[in-house]
Specification:
Blueprint (H helix, E strand, L loop, with lengths): L1 E3 L6 H10 L4 E5 L10 E3 L10 H4 L10 E4 L7 H15 L4 E5 L11 H10 L3 E7 L16 E2 L4 E4 L11 H13 L6 E6 L6 H12 L4 E4 L2 H9 L5 H12 L2 H8 L8 E6 L4 H13 L1
Parallel strand pairs: 1-2, 1-4, 2-3, 4-5, 5-6, 6-9, 8-10, 9-11
Antiparallel strand pairs: 7-8
């Protein structure tokens, strides 16, 4: 049995991969309701009384939880927000393997997710950090929510200038996580997950323009403008602005082209998904036309 925290952009396709592979898995949501035909339990990072729900669900040896996929809650101190559950699962319930959803430019011990990554190493469990680039799904228009995608005004938004990014489909990220959870030998390192090509935000706008027949442009903000923009929807705008700084400096392009670090701290493996942004743009074009 495997436990997948959350049914978001990565958690849902990951749960669907387990179901399609006939490998037992539990999905979670705050209410315990998850899309059919998945099996769900209630889980809330802020409510320790829900932590045992997945473990008490077990009815036999085959239901023992072997690995947990961690999607941390949005918090400036992600270790503080996740440590209580990680300790409960690892130290009280004996879970051996944890797979953490992090970010491409956040290494072991880095900002936000990086502290959780280091904690998993420090407590001696089997682990993998899934460190994806920016999601294709960030460009799916969402009513009432504008961050990277503003379909009303026909813009994609960043402060990255002309820097290239390895945008990736969340379904490809889920495939990397599935592999990390089910492979016999633990990675004990990072899968840095990219799409098949490097694109600028201007390239993204051009592709969306082509498939929609509408003029869509890149709105390139200054750092201070982007931080103010992020404050409206993110609990850690400075961290997000710092990641944009790294993108603007070309850090992701170098990582995409040169591969992971070889500094001996941990294994870093580049995982490149197969889905293109061109094909994803076809899936979401109606949201940009209407």
């Amino acid at each position: 049995m495997h436990l997948i925290i959350g049914t978001g952009k990565v958690g849902l396709p990951l749960s669907q991969l387990f179901h399609a592979s006939n490998i037992p898995a539990l999905s979670t949501s705050r209410s315990g309701n998850v899309p059919s035909p998945l099996t769900g339990v209630a889980f809330d990072w802020n409510d320790p009384s829900t932590f045992d729900n997945a473990f008490s669900h077990a009815k036999g040896a085959s239901d023992v939880i072997q690995s947990i996929f961690l999607t941390p809650p949005p918090s400036i101190d992600m270790l503080q927000a996740t440590k209580l559950f990680i300790d409960f699962a690892a130290k009280e319930k004996g879970v051996k393997r944890f797979v953490l959803l992090s970010s491409s430019l956040v290494p072991l011990g880095g900002i936000v997710h990086g502290a959780v990554h280091k904690y998993l190493l420090d407590i001696g469990v089997e682990y993998a950090a899934i460190r994806p680039s920016w999601f294709f799904q960030n460009f799916q228009p969402s009513p009432g929510f504008v961050f990277y995608a503003d379909s009303t005004n026909g813009t994609v938004i960043s402060s990255t200038g002309f820097s290239k990014i390895g945008f990736v489909d969340a379904r490809d990220i889920a495939e990397a996580a599935f592999h990390a959870m089910t492979e016999k030998e633990p990675l004990n390192g990072s899968y840095i997950v990219f799409g098949p090509e490097l694109l600028t935000y201007a390239h993204v706008a051009e592709i969306l323009s082509t498939v929609t027949g509408r003029s869509i442009t890149h709105r390139n903000l200054s750092r201070s403008e982007f931080k103010e923009h992020a404050k409206r929807v993110m609990p850690f705008p400075e961290a997000i602005a710092t990641l944009e700084d790294l993108l603007r400096s070309g850090a992701e392009e170098r990582l995409f082209l040169d591969g992971g670090a070889e500094d001996g701290k941990e294994k870093e493996v580049i995982w490149k998904g197969k889905r293109s942004f061109q094909s994803y743009a076809q899936e979401i074009k109606d949201g940009w036309i209407n």
